Model the fold of this input.
Amino acid sequence: MKIVIAPDSFKESLSALEVANAIEQGFKLIFPDAQYCKVPMADGGEGTVQAMVDATQGQIINLTVTGPLGSPVNAFYGVLGQLNETGNQTAIIEMAAASGLHHVPLSQRNPLLTTSFGTGELIADALNRGIRHIILGLGGSATNDAGAGMMQALGVKLSDIAMTPLPFGGAALTTLHHVDVQLLHPAIKDCVIEVACDVDNPLCGPRGASAIFGPQKGATTEMIEQLDLALSHFAHTITQQLSQSIDAHCRLHPGAGAAGGMGFGVMTILNATLKPGVDIVTKSVKLAQYCHNADLVITGEGRIDGQTVFGKTPMGVLNVAKQQNVPVIGISGCLGPNADAILAQGMHAIFPIIPALQPLEQVLSEAQVNLTNTARNIAAILSLSFTKK
Done:
């Protein structure tokens, strides 16, 4: 029997690899001789780097970069342990690692000032190491600068009418007058950049970056209006001065408003493509190959609910397994409203692991034990079909 275990992390308790190990431990109590293939998964959000490094036996690169407030922060990215289909190394970068909200104390959150420069430094480091395939996960950012800081870190000169370099922050975008890409990192042209993006917000307007994501980054109503105007001016200037290589409608592209407008920045300057995160991950870790000739796939995440079918890890794993007619079981910390939506999509069963009402702290601390016990019970039920009458 071949069993593929491909879960996401259980946030705040277990990494994706730890989840996979716990499930394997439980199943081995019933099926000790089965072949187990553990493939830690993610959907492009927090934990994607660790999951993909674990899944491919890659490595973590630790760096000190420029944080959202302009001061140094410790950050990281991953290099996958297997080459892609064109024979190139792949770097996996989470924007939040360098430019995330967790780097900014609550009292100092101000998207008028925060920068994505550190994300650009991570990209530059990967390029300098000879890597020519980059996967960039958006989400959790503290910035609203449309990737301007990232552009500056990669050599783009952004300046005002007096040719003074733009300072960091979303507010400064209003003064952009000159865009010079002559010193853009030369390896960009040879690099394939895929962006894991699971939102469809445009850059500006009532559904844009400032209005939807600004408040969680510290933006007041007045700031939102200021930032939206700044993004609009920035986008107009970028497309006007680089019109030969940039789609004038890029600001309206679904996902352009992701991560404070970083979606717009990577599409325009890096010629990146925006894709659902889980699709990028499943392809990069070669999940379909693991599922070949499998008898069962087990996936899961911290909470399965009605939103899971909209691009979350269990749905991505289900889609891959369905293509090879392999049954799928989901395991989660808990089940939320409309969790059965994923059953309608073809998942065979879903199981929560919490055995009783408990304080949250206890639930999180006992996740590994509860997960192993649940996996063991699922395996025991499956074993009934092999019992001779």
